[in-house]
Amino acid sequence: LNLMDVKSFFSEDMEACMALSEVLNDKENLSTELHRSVNRMTVDLLRSKQKALKAELIYKALAIPNCLFLNFSLIKNIPDMGALMSYLKASSYNITNSYIMFDAMHTWADANFGSNKVNEKMTYLKDFKDIVKERNWKPIVPRYIKKKLNEGKQALIADEKYTRYHRLVSDVTFTPKELFENNNDIKFYFKHPKREGCIDEAKCGFIVQIKGIYPGGTLLSPFSIKVVVDKEAYPDDIIFNSKCTDIKNMHVALNIDNNIKDYPITWSGQPVRTSKGTHYWGEHRFYSAADSKGLDDEKDLYKFRNDSNIIAIL
Q1: Which residues, at least 6 apart from 267, have a Cβ–Cβ distance to it below 8 Å?
Q2: Rg (CA), the chain
Q3: What angle separates helix 98-113 from helix 81-90, to the nearest 10 degrees?
């Protein structure tokens, strides 16, 4: 056995390299130089395999920008809106589009002043619009802020002429338990005027992959919402095209109880399951009507019952 023989093994796959294991264990049959070369190539191969595996995992499902689930505690105790704007302007790593910044402002105002006071307390909206323009972000679609701000303040940050977007609602609904504890693959379809097969029929689309905090009901794991980008993983009834699925500008929200539209989840952090089986996500408690027995509705100011739909905005 010489160095050329060893290299020929390593030019194949990891399985081929295992054929060397018995030889490697018999160090007496290997020269010092050959033994070092084998060890070095083994390490290099393992590293390349790890990088390839990591790249493959990243490729198969990409995180949606606002589904990093930033922790509200980062901004909760900021004293006023001016200080909040200064913090958001300086946090360019996490604040990467107009929705993430707006959700921070709205969530902070809602927690500090209550939903009935958000309109009068949402100051600095002109500053927000200036930041969006300066950073060349896509504008917020008018419908997203329709019930979050009054018409006068909507006009400060939304362009009514901006119609180049899709607001997609999932066909399926989820109870809090189904949403937070199960793994779900949700199909979204849309038409596209310039993509073959997508002009007349809504066959273009994507799959949103939700990983629950208790998949299978056993081990705790991080909750995640991502878009599947591996074309091989898509069934025949849906066409994925990365050129018309702009993940970096995608935004996800919830419709709750048929009453609350486009509820922001960006600053909710990770959901938590209580010992009673209800779930906290950010400042709010989620539970179905069947789970509401024994809960004090007077004290539970932030509560969402029954079913939710996933909203995707492109």
Answers
A1: 69, 70, 71, 72, 74, 75, 103, 104, 107, 282
A2: 25
A3: 150
**Spatial distance between the Cα atoms of 305 and 218, rounded to a whole number of angstroms:** 24
pTM of the model: 0.74
- Sequence-ordered list of residues with C-beta below 8 angstroms from that of 262, at least 6 positions apart, any chain: 143, 144, 147, 148, 253, 254, 255, 311
Walk across the sheet containing 308-313 and list its strands.
Answer: 167-169, 308-313, 251-256, 260-264
Tens of pLDDT, residue by residue over 150-205, are: 887 887 777 666 656 778 888 888 888 889 988 899 999 887 766 666 665 567 88
Look up residue 285 and give its DSSP letter.
E
Report DSSP state, residue 202: -
Q: Do residues 234 and 228 touch, judged by C-beta distance below 8 A?
A: yes
**191 contacts: CB under 8 Å, gap ≥ 6:** 198, 199, 200, 201, 202, 204
Q: Which amino acid is at 175?
A: T
Instruction: Spell out the alpha helix ranges (H) of the chain.
Output: 3-10, 14-17, 21-25, 32-60, 81-90, 98-113, 118-121, 125-134, 142-145, 151-157, 176-181
125-134 and 81-90 are packed helices; what angle lies between their axes, rounded to 10 degrees? 10
Supply 133's token pair: 């323009």
In three-state secondary structure terms, 99 is helix
C-alpha span between 39 and 302 (Å, rounded): 59
Residue 138 DSSP label: P
The reported pLDDT for the residue numbered 38 is 60
Number of H helices, E strands in the chain: 11, 12
Token pair of 2 as six digits: 């010489």
Cβ atoms of residues 136 and 109 within 8 Å: no
| Segments of 213-265 assigned E as strands | 224-228, 251-256, 260-264
Angle of helix 3-10 relative to helix 32-60, nearest 10 degrees? 10
